[in-house]
Every structure is written in C-alpha cells, then in structure tokens.
Amino acid sequence: MRSLFNVKLITSQSEMATEIVVSLVGGGFAVVVALISKIGYDNKKDHGIVHQSLGRIEQKIDGHVENHK
Fold this sequence. Notes:
Layout: H1 2-68
C-alpha cells in the first residue's frame, strides 16, 4: 500500500509542477504582450511628432522657394 501512496504523491507533485509551468509561461506571454503594446503606442506617438516636424519644415522650404521666384 505504501508504494501506491508514493505513486499518487509523485503524480500530484507532477501535476502541480505542470500548473506552475503553465502559469509562468502564461504570465511571461502577458508581459511580452504588454511590452509590445507599449512599444506600439510609443512608436505611433513618435511618428506623430515627426509628422508635425516635417510639416513645419515643408512650410519653411515652400516659403523659401517662393522668395526666390
């Protein structure tokens, strides 16, 4: 009877280890998704700033070219 109990104990520990691994992997992917989302947001914000800057430069160049005509 004792060896049967040990087998059940090992199975129980194995299932718990599997649950822990699954939780850690799921949590890791959640962190990765959050980081990718943050990077995407920052990238979009940076593109907006660059777009505004290029618009100002374009206006300055257009004004400068008009002065030479």
